[in-house]
Design brief:
The chain is α+β, with helices and mostly antiparallel strands. It contains twelve helices and ten strands. The chain has a five-stranded mixed beta sheet, with no helix packed on it. Strands 1-3-8 form a three-stranded antiparallel beta sheet, with no helix packed on it. The protein has a two-stranded antiparallel ribbon with strand order 6-7. Helix 2 (28-47) runs antiparallel to helix 4 (60-91), helix 7 (165-190) packs parallel to helix 10 (262-284) and helix 9 (206-235) packs parallel to helix 11 (294-313). The longest helix is centred in the N-terminal third of the chain and has 32 residues, at 60-91. The radius of gyration is 28 Å and the shape is elongated. 33% of the residues are buried.
Length: 425
């Protein structure tokens, strides 16, 4: 449907997606969708050999360069619309946070009311409801104060504009422990006798909540350490990072390219199971911190260590392995000359998350002192150049004959090793 709309063109009076009025037909989301559809139509037409002007149709190199420039301009429009859609989405997060918090409090009230049938309403239920209102109110207020930066999600969004798995897990444990302490505070405020107050205060002893406190300390330390590890590896060009248009829930379980990762999935799943167990323990024993068994606590610690090891193991610097003269069928074998195409073989040329055309068009090959932009070569459903392992670029006439070095600069700004080749007249 989107492709059909792009072929028909925009409706009369459309905003072209320039406004940020949310879900209106001409808002940022609709503008991004239309831009993507128009780009896909143009890419598929060029891949089928359609739309080429007669002035460049006779030359393979000229037509390839013209197509690459056209696709690059169209991709820049898609990226601009994507950024606008992302900013619009972030500005609406605080409203969704308020709705989610309200729904959670109402759900808690309904559950407490149903479980109170026959057993009666207790001070523990009142304390739990008041604690939920306080935590929810704090989240809503923080969302409103940071409404232009993602609301309540602002602390858990990484520098690459994606949800950070380690920060989300740490934030979940922090909110749960804060809620548990507030429940004890509410019960302590309502306690009438000194014996009951002493029992509630003893519920905060470290001996009872050692497992939960240990898990809280470890997950918070993991969140801080992962940020440091990623930052150091990016600055050392051992990890490639590109910025996303907006955070998504799938970021918690996938890498930057959208592929599911074992380290992230097991960390989220095991942490969620441990939190569910701790929540049940708090509901059963609201007079003390949840006594997380050491066996379950150790499982969470092992999961956190696996996640941290995964962060150390991911990524790697791109590398050029070889450079050869690109040869078409019927061409004679020979040395590399100016005007020839060269094929650069290696690994890591396309960083995770940089598969879009606007990111691919930012790749550059340095041949001697000349910077050559990698042309986009469309095929049905994608691009045949550039790829993660092979790049094809022309050797421009400005390259001086002799021994020159070839180096690839990826969309993340990371440089590969230098590879020497001989260019003849």
């Amino acid at each position: 449907m989107a492709v059909q709309e792009a072929r028909q063109g925009p409706e009369p009076g459309a905003h072209d997606g320039g406004c940020a009025c949310g879900d209106c037909p001409h808002g940022a989301r609709e503008g991004h969708r239309r831009a993507v559809a128009a780009f896909l139509v143009k890419r598929d037409e060029f891949a089928a050999g359609q739309g080429l002007p007669a002035a460049v149709a006779h030359s393979a190199s000229a037509s390839r360069q013209w197509v690459s420039e056209e696709l690059t301009q169209s991709a820049e429009l898609v990226a601009e619309r994507g950024r606008a859609e992302g900013e619009s989405w972030l500005s609406r997060v605080w409203q969704r946070t308020a709705c989610t918090v309200g729904a959670a409090v109402v759900t808690l009230l309904l559950v407490q009311s149903l479980t109170a049938i026959g057993a009666g309403w207790t001070t523990a239920r009142t304390a739990g409801l008041l604690a939920a209102l306080l935590v929810g109110g704090a989240l809503t207020a923080a969302s409103w104060l940071h409404r232009t930066r993602g609301g309540a999600l602002a602390p858990v969004i990484g520098e690459d504009n994606r949800l950070s798995t380690s920060r989300v897990v740490a934030a979940a444990w922090v909110l749960f422990v804060a809620y548990a302490v507030l429940v004890l505070v509410g019960r302590l405020a309502a306690a009438s006798g000194p014996a009951e107050r002493d029992a509630l205060i003893s519920g905060l002893d470290l001996a009872r909540g050692a497992g939960a406190v240990t898990v809280l300390a470890v997950v918070c330390a993991i969140a801080v350490l992962v940020r440091r590890v990623v930052g150091v590896r990016v600055l050392g060009q051992r990890l490639q990072k590109v910025r996303a248009h907006r955070p998504r829930a799938a970021d918690l379980l996938t890498d930057d390219a959208g592929r599911g990762t074992f380290a992230d999935i097991q960390y989220v799943v095991i942490s969620a199971v441990a939190l569910a167990f701790a929540a049940v323990r708090l509901a059963r024993r609201p007079d003390q911190l949840p006594d997380l068994p050491w066996g379950l606590a150790v499982v969470v610690l092992v999961s956190a260590a696996t996640y941290l090891a995964g962060k150390y193991a991911e990524g790697g610097r791109p590398v050029v392995l070889s450079v050869v003269r690109s040869r078409e069928a019927g061409d004679l074998d020979g040395p590399i000359r100016t005007g020839d195409d060269i094929e650069i073989r290696g690994a890591g040329f396309v960083p995770p998350g940089a598969q879009t055309a606007d990111r691919l068009s930012r790749m550059v090959v340095r041949i001697g002192t000349v910077h050559v932009h990698v042309p986009l070569v469309p095929v049905a459903g994608g691009f045949s150049n550039p790829t993660d392992a092979v790049l094809t670029v022309p050797v421009p006439a400005e390259v001086e004959p002799g021994r020159v070095e070839v180096q690839v600069i990826t969309a993340a700004g990371v440089e590969t090793n230098r590879y020497a080749i001989d260019v003849t007249d």
